[in-house]
Amino acid sequence: MVTRQMRQWISSGSAIRAMFEEGKQLARRYGADNVYDFSLGNPSLPAPEAVREAFCDVLRTCDPLELHGYMSNSGYDDVRAAIARRLSERDGVAYRACDVVMTVGAAGGMNVLLKSILEPSDEVVVFAPYFGEYRRYVENYGGILVECAPNPPAFLPDPKELAAKISPRTKAVIVNTPNNPTGVVYPRACIAAICDVLQSFRARGQEICLISDEPYRELVYDGAQATPIAPLYPNTVVCYSYSKSLSLPGERIGYLALHPEIADGDALRDACNVATRVLGFVNAPSLQQKMLLRCLDLPIDVSAYDDNRRALCEILDACGLEYVKPQGAFYLFVRSPLADDRAFCETAKRENLLLVPGSGFGCAGWVRVAYCVSMRTIRRSADAFARLARRCAEISGAR
Known about the structure:
There is one protein chain. By secondary structure, the chain is α/β, with parallel strands linked by helices. It has 15 helices and 13 strands. The strands form 3 sheets. It has a 7-stranded mixed beta sheet with strand order 2-8-7-6-5-3-4, sandwiched between helices. Helix 5 (77-91) packs across helix 11 (286-295), helix 6 crosses helix 10 (265-278) and helix 8 packs parallel to helix 9. The protein is globular and about 60 Å long.
């Protein structure tokens, strides 16, 4: 009864989720304090107290029939208008409420958008390394994922390769900065070069959607800033989630913001509304939407993640493990000292260290370490990383 495609997805699985499940088993066997789970990008900080107060205020003050009933597929008008105003102030693009579609997280939003724009065999270009679920999202609508090769150690997109990978079937390009899994923040010049390539194809009559996947937008360090993309290219759709910035991954709330001047805009807005319904979301969760009205201007404190980042870098430096120093998100991308990154992760498990192979992100030979964990976990993992480095040196020496 199960489709061939689904059987393929089951067999390939998600390396992140598989490692997370193994971590739970190891914790039961050895005790949670003795397992160092760096697999899942699950925020380790609680949601701000203001978020919890906002939830309570919504439940106390809102009309229950309105709060718990259906609304427009795009979400509450007042919430969309508030987000549009905030984006307009940030980006200098005159967003309207009708340009915003409330979504079930960034994942739900990207699926709504891809459902709206992809015909079978249409292509979507990504820059490796990339979030592995992009492939399944694209294939779910008959699309084809086209990879631009990794470019270590900077891991910045190559505009020339992008131009070479675009074909008459190219419908979209996905940009994710700050990046998962590298933590790299693409500089403005890099973003502008990508937009210049797409503008050149637009001048020839090919309208390509630039999907700016921004769940880590506020999580930046060392004075870095995530460049707003919409001002540089009118066919931009921002895909955002509050999972990371407000530590609400389980609440599943985010939005799509369609550039007011995007090609075929009226039809695309209507399509996103219909896609929200036919994909079974119907609308984004009502309680979470109303909470956002009270929390859009909350300051985002990344100091704890920055402390984690610095502490983990010190541990890896002491072990002699190479990595890309991240300027954003909460991931370190570490070069595998073994040729096979999956073998390296299996070796790490012998030290109760749970890391995710870079192969799952389209970048073999590297591994992702999620440092959105407690400082206690990071400190306690130091000896395990040291033992892992020695094991790998012994394995390499034996060969």
